[in-house]
Amino acid sequence: MIEVKSLSKTFNQKDGTMFKAVDGLSFTAEDGQIVCLLGVNGAGKTTTMRVLSTIFLPSAGTASINGWDILTHPQKVRENLGFLSGDTGLYNRLTGREFITYFGRLYGLDEGRIKYQIRQMANLLDMHDFIDKKIDFMSSGMKQKVSIVRSIIHDPQVMIFDEPTSGLDILTARNIITFIRECKNQGKCVLFSTHIMREAERIADKIVMIHKGGLLAEGTLEELRADTGQTDLDDIFVSYINRQNTEAEVMAHEF
Amino acid sequence: MNFNRALVVYKKEMLEMFRDKRTIFSTIILPFILYPLIFIGTFSLMSRQTAKLEEKGAVIALADSVNDNASHLISEQIKTIKNFTVEPMYQATPRMFEDKLVHAIISIKDSLQSSGIPIYQIAVKLDKSTDRGKMIADKVNVALKNAESKILEQRLAEKGINAEFISTVSIRQQDTSSTAKKLGSLLGSILPYLLIMLLIAGASVVAGDLVAGEKERKTLETLLVSSAHRNEIVLGKYLTIITFALINVAVNLISLYFSMRNIASQSGLQMAGVKFPLNGFLMLFLALIPLATLYAALLLSISTFSRNMKEARSYEQPILLVSMLLAMSSFFPAIELNNGLALIPVINISLLFKAVMMSDYKVTHLLLTIGSTIILDIAAIFMTVKLFNNEGVLFRSESDTSLKGLKKNKKAFFTPYYGLVYYVLALLALYYIGGTWQSKEIVSGLFKTQVIIILLPVLIILRLVKADWKQTLRLTGTNPVNFAIVPFIAISASILVSLLGQLINLIYPIPQDYLEKMSELLKMPDLQLWQIIGLIAVLPGICEEVLFRGFLYRFYENKNAWFAIIASAFLFALFHLDPYRFIPVFFLGVLLGWLLYKTNSLYVSMFSHMLNNALAVIIMQVGNKGILGYLISDQGEINWLAGIPALVILAVSLAAFSKINNKQEDILQS
Question: What is the DSSP string of A48-115?
């Protein structure tokens, strides 16, 4: 499970000013649950996920992955975490098998386990025809499958997908969505971010809306619908934005 | 740190590099083709050139004004030279010589020696600046020597003396500079440069790809979320660069060695007893290892800092350029390795190579070279690891450095980028305009430089960006006690910096004429003492502090205070355009920056700067070049003991100062 506790991330800009990319964000994602981090471009989705995956250190607050704190046990966090993003690159000069094996070794898995995992996943994703091809010669769909296997080679309990379908064609994007559902069925905790409302509507058990680094709304689709009186997620999102703006105006008015 | 994981990274990087055709071609295949081509090509070209020249022959005009048996013998010898056409002297011959239709004029005259025996005087006129001229001279010399011994034989035969009678001593000269040594000196000047450049080129091909390349291909993120620790990743990549750089050098050395042996056996050098110093080649390779590790670390940190490979390439350029200049030191025959030079990177390896090739190197130099390189190496690795753990560097984004952005945000003006631009302009103005003023008239020149070049532009710019100049320059009041402590700091620091100067002088002796010039400058016989203090101490104390601690410091304080202190001190030291004073002035700059940081008041650093310069002036005036001679590092005795009380006073006064000025609010920052 993922627990995010008043997480903030501030970047120093070159002109000396500070930019708050994530601002006191809290939410949780349970095992066997798909939680969607929803927000427009620049809302702080990628920064949040980078903090959760220990690429960035938080400026304030903390979070835990499968019970391990990102500040005190970053190594354990990485061992329990699979990470996949839409624009992830691969090492083109390696074959699919070499690429996956490399990451398996970095996770400290023994050779037998790596081989077994690759065989299992190749069966599941129908990869036998191309797994020994150089990545340079693979289609984007093949590459995406290699990336999927790479992200799950160490069988992590928590999966984080950062805009996993952005820039992919429909068929490849479908593979990802199927994979995300498969992760859920295996009882893993899944956090995935997108700015495409329809995608969230389709697979999310819970939606976490963020805007300008802060939490906008959190709940199941039904809860959000009931709260706003809207059915379409697009409309729900807009009505939350409007609500926040009016609240800000009222605040400004009162003081 | 798990070494196995670093090894996993290393193996994968090596595999990837070996799969890159361009890398393999430039590091391994090219050297194996290049040297044989260069050596065999040049050699065969040269020998063909010589053969061609001999085939072409020459036209020689011969004027024999003696016309006896002996002179005929001389003419005969010249006529036997292959491919030479010998014609008599005509009226037009001198003109033809000018027009290069005749290549040499030989005239034979005779006269009598005091004993009455005739001597033949042979004048050879030719142009030795051309290859043909040299060839003619060689051939004619041989012919004339033959003629001489034949004539001698005839004369001895006339007197009935055996020709062997005149050979009294047989001299066989042996050149003590062995052929290997000669070859070494030739190779010694070219090889170090070549190998150092190859090493850097080999390392940079790989380094750019390893981190900047990962950023460009968007694979870095995946690597960072794997359970490999960042230091393990750095180590794996670092080893990859070193391996490739060394493979490149080894391949080049091997190819070079065999090409040279090949040439030597073809040209008959081997017969003449030339042995190629194989162990010398091995030594070179070993000496290159520390340098390879240093460059691997440097280039890896550049690669880490760069957003993409193109950016990495452009950041590598200055390093390549500086290394090239340093490596060229082996070209100069007068430069030899000493203990001081053995501490300067690249120059030391370059000169050590030369010494090894000439097989007279000293073990101390070898150790100093390797030791100093390793120290730098550790510093560079430390920097790389630090950079790699800095998320701001790893995920650097484009910053707005346009003037439009500047107008929108006034605070955006104080960025390191603009600081550097301003500094470079000021430095150019100092060098070209200030230099001209000072060479015309020193007193007014110094005054104008301080006021017009150093002070005025800062005030104008602050006006232009509409900044509050008093706050920006930190012209704010401070605890009066500070002014009581500063003299202790300034004086003790002056003593220590002066000792440091002496220490530097031991390693890099300062030329005597330079010292004399410096003391002339500070004495200024036409002026009163108070006038000199005004010009050398008070004025720079105000103007230079405004520029360096007041203005330029602002550009570098966004990162952290120490960065601003070091950066402004570095620029301050460089501004003096004087390599001998660089280190002492740098330390002074650091101290002044710290005083400013602690008090947030420019008045304090101004006061300290004035005191420091005034001390130097007074010491010069009094004429005592003793331990306080801050700018003058005497060749004479150094009173090291003076350092101890100075150190104690400095430490105590700095501690007191630090305690009094615990935290000062800066209005601009809060």
Answer: HHHHHTTSS--SEEEEEETTEETTT-HHHHHHTEEEEETT----TTSBHHHHHHHHHHHTT--HHHHH
